[in-house]
Amino acid sequence: MFMTAIPISMLVGPWISELLLKLEGHALFGVPLHGWQWVFLVEGLPAVACGFFALYWLTDRPEDARWLAAPDREWLSEVMNRERAARVKRSYAHGLKVLLNPSVAILCVFYFLNNMATYGVFFFLRKMLAEASGYTDWRLTLISSVPFVPALVGMVLIGRHSDRTGERQRHVAACALIAAAGLVLATLFPKNLPLVVFSFALSQLGQRAILGVFWAIPPMFLGGSAAAAGIATINAMGNLGGWLGPDLMGHLRDASSGYTIGLLVLASGLVLEAILVMTLRLPERDRPT
Questions:
Q1: Which of 12, 54, 87, 250 is most deeply buried (CB count within 10 A of its CB)?
Q2: Which pTM does this prediction carry?
Q3: In this predicted structure, what is the pLDDT of residue 87?
């Protein structure tokens, strides 16, 4: 559920940013600021404050979470202890040896490709919708928010279904293919606004729904220090894709005078993701009751 904050922020963020950009030249404590500086301050400072609050509020163990009722703390602690014991028995690697784990390497490549597609689309989404619609005002902000509505719903429903069935790989692969289909569809009707919006809505549905299910995979075969090292490695290596995606889209757009080739390259990466995740050899999990 926490990851639904991503599409929610993308629903409301453009409206707030548009208002803040209009503060161009307004002063703070006597110092005139550009609109983008207002965006950084107003949207960034609450995140920093929440970070310090999280350090105080969030705990390392359920036993210390006083904001949970005592029975809930006991139940969660028992469940986590059972899962931890099971992972120790079937863990493929321990400690820093996890860096040589083939499954971790696959997940690194997967997350790299996923971030490449996510940021490659997101940084150019508003421009692509502007070209399709001809809008530059609040109407562009409105249609730019629309694709994240199904993404929000999909994250919840697909995540719940994955938890209920205990299945991860097929859910992740299906989401990646849905996202790829959306990008391919967007290249077929670049000037048809309803179809372009539908295409990116389909793409965002797949892209965002991947996240909650994907991050449930590493703990299936990693435990203890291996989990910490493995998740950190996946996150660090994968986030490099967030740098490459927009850069690649920009270069391909300049070289081809359009977004088609870039979108097809990102769609190919999503298809490769689906193949990669299905090659993982994960331990069997009991279906939740």
A1: 87
A2: 0.84
A3: 62
174 CB-near residues (< 8 Å, 6+ apart): 206, 274
Burial of 207 (0-12, 13-18, 19+ CB in 10 A): buried
How buried is 116 (Cβ within 10 angstroms: 0-12 exposed, 13-18 middle, 19+ buried)?
A: buried
Contact 259/253 with Cβ under 8 angstroms? yes
What's the CATH fold of domain 96-281? Answer: Growth Hormone; Chain: A; (1.20.1250)
> Which long-range contacts (C-beta less than 8 Å, at least 24 apart) are formed by 89-95?
90/221, 90/283, 91/221, 91/222, 91/223, 91/224, 91/226, 92/221, 92/222, 93/222, 93/226, 93/230, 94/224, 94/225, 94/226, 95/225, 95/226, 95/229
Can you give the pLDDT at residue 288?
43
User: Residue range 9-36: average pLDDT?
Assistant: 90
SS3 content of the chain, % helix, strand, coil (to 5): 80, 0, 20
60 pLDDT higher than 90: no
pLDDT above 80: residue 34: yes
Give the domain ranges of the chain: 96-281
Mean pLDDT value of segment 256-263: 94
Separation of alpha carbons 20 and 42, rounded Å:
8
Look at the alpha carbons of 18, 241, 217, 63 in this order and tell me if their dihedral is positive or negative. Answer: negative
- For residue 1, the model assigns a pLDDT of 59
- DSSP-derived secondary structure letter, 30: T
